[in-house]
Design a protein that fits this description.
By secondary structure, this protein is of the alpha+beta class. Helix content is 39%, strand content 15%. Strand 6, helix 4 and strand 7 form a beta-alpha-beta unit.
């Protein structure tokens, strides 16, 4: 993928996250790995719903701006440390979605209550060392250690860090996490929870291959872009 196409994907990812309830004033950021040494990331100072390809900065793995107009987010270290730690990652998201953030603020774990939760069948870790902004390399490294091999980590009382092999995969994981957390909140209000493993301990393992397929992820990505256009989240984006 060329540089401009990848910038456009990062911008669409920001718009889609805003559409899906991840907006929080001008906070939150999405990045994509450009190559072994460079990262494309949303600039500081604008909301997720405002991002265009021109708002994507190029930074190096030490968070120094290489190209683009605007300031680098203070928490860009979350992105660079994730890329340094896991060579397979192509995209990183940090946002403050309300339901997933709420799970990280109580004594609760994500249960296998719906298909969205299946993506996290191998665990949804929690980083609990601090609720402060993550601005220093040693803090970013600690978050990445908590993330481990997983799709996401909850930052206690703060937000989430979500990763993927590419931008569509990271978006799929971020949306699935918030949907699963929202479903669990609804179910908890209705009665005792009944996770799918109560029926069969291997249910989530069997569901995973059919739910988490790149073909489906790509299909969802294009659907979400169409939805963003239809729902008014595409102003300023390329035709």
């Amino acid at each position: 993928m060329d540089d401009q196409a990848l910038r456009t994907d990062v911008a669409w990812a920001c718009r889609i996250l805003a559409m899906e309830g991840h907006n929080d004033f001008t906070l939150g950021h999405v990045s994509a790995r450009r190559d072994a040494n460079l990262v494309l990331i949303k600039r500081f100072g604008i909301g997720l719903d405002e991002v265009t390809p021109d708002d994507i900065l190029t930074i190096d793995m030490d968070r120094r701006k290489v190209a683009g107009n605007g300031a680098v987010h203070l928490e860009a270290v979350l992105h660079t440390e994730a890329y340094k730690s896991r060579a397979e990652l192509g995209a990183v998201i940090h946002t403050h979605p309300p339901y997933a953030t709420a799970i990280g603020a109580v004594e609760a774990t994500l249960k296998m209550l719906c298909h969205d939760a299946v993506l996290f069948k191998d665990g949804l870790p929690i980083f609990a060392e601090t609720a402060e902004l993550i601005t220093q390399p040693h803090q970013g490294q600690a978050v990445v250690r908590a993330l481990g091999p997983h799709h996401a980590v909850l930052l206690r009382n703060h937000g989430v860090l979500v990763v993927g092999r590419d931008v569509p995969s990271a978006i799929f994981a971020a949306i699935s996490l918030e949907r699963a957390a929202r479903f669990q909140a609804i179910a908890s209000a209705l009665g005792p929870l009944r996770p799918m493993e109560d029926m069969d301990s291997a249910m989530a393992d069997r569901l995973y291959p059919s739910k988490v397929r790149q073909e489906l992820v790509n299909n969802y990505w294009h659907y979400l872009i169409r939805q963003a256009r239809q729902r008014g989240f595409a102003a300023g984006m390329p035709a």
